[in-house]
Request: fold
Amino acid sequence: MAAEGKTIDALSQFELTHAFGPVGAAVNFTQSNAYMLAMAVLIVLLVTVGMAPRAIVPGRLQAAAETFYEFVENLVIGQVGHEGKRYFPFVFTLFMFILFGNVAGLFPYAFTYTSHIAVTFGLAAVVFILTTLIALALHGKKFFGYFFPEGAPVWLAPIIVPVEVVSYLSRPISLSIRLFANMVAGHVLLKVFATFVVLLGGLGIVGPFLAVLPLTVNVLLIGFELLVAFLQAYVFAILTSVYLHDAVHLH
Amino acid sequence: MNSPLRAVQPTGGATAGAKVNERDDFNERLRKARQRQGLERTARGAEGEGRDGLPASALRIGLRAGVEVVSALIAGAGIGWLIDRWLGTFPWLFMLFFAIGGVAGVLNVYRLFNPRNGARK
Reply:
């Protein structure tokens, strides 16, 4: 699937196609949506089926579910404090959805829905709007004091306020670009080196020996991408928690 | 305790009274054992970590800083362009907000290293 026509075609893997044949085409249901749906089902299954036994000494599935749960719980409480517990379901859902999307994309022939800026920006926009609403609900008008640090000279306000507002508005953009760029970069790299394997493999007698080099790189890259997949989900979750902290404590 | 550490981590979930004590005691010993082995991560803020708890690898910090600057520039330029389109003053507010975006980007990077919390409390 890598090198049709002896060229490096690293970007076609991000193209959307319709899933489920004519039915999917009629409602514009893409393979990206299909993967989202599948991952959502997998996550729900992991949590419900995994936690069904409720054993003191957990089995494998339960251990996995508990590990994820406790990981995110520690993260949220560590960042937001105990008031943050009520935001745990939100952060947990985000983390699992992104993590499963990132990891699922590493399987051959799979599609990575987190490699589309529309998806990541959608997620980041939800975080941004939610944190802003929480801040407004908890602090009312005092929230706008966030854009002007107390103690700063008033004549600086025309400079400080726009800068703070732009800085605040840049949050969802940086949040979405970070995840999107990491996933795209990783998958392009994988594809490029996979194409090298095929192209070099066709070079007569020495070809297969040369092709081992990019293949080795790809094996290492897959490991690295697994790390990135986890790390980016973690970063997304932790930055969400940081923003929630700012919304709850307002400083 | 010969069993591997990973097999015994059910700290979540409350169970009946008598067992809790026993398990707390066990968790305490487990924690100490992990600390001796250097497996325990301090909950928050080992030296190399910022407020976000991210490990301070130079490359990652650099990438994060880059993303922060670029996103602030995009936000600034976007706002400027939108207001310009609304008021019909095309290049001027766009340019002004582009500059503000740059300042906000620098501010973002500054906050990366000196978070607001510590600075203002």
About this structure: The helical segments of chain B are 17-36, 58-87, 90-113, 116-120. Chain B has a mean pLDDT of 72. The interface with chain A takes residues 6-13, 15, 19, 43-44, 51-54, 64, 67-68, 70-72, 74-76, 79, 97, 100-101, 103-105, 107-108, 111, 116-117, 120-121 of chain B (CB under 8 Å). The two ends of chain B are 45 Å apart (CA to CA).
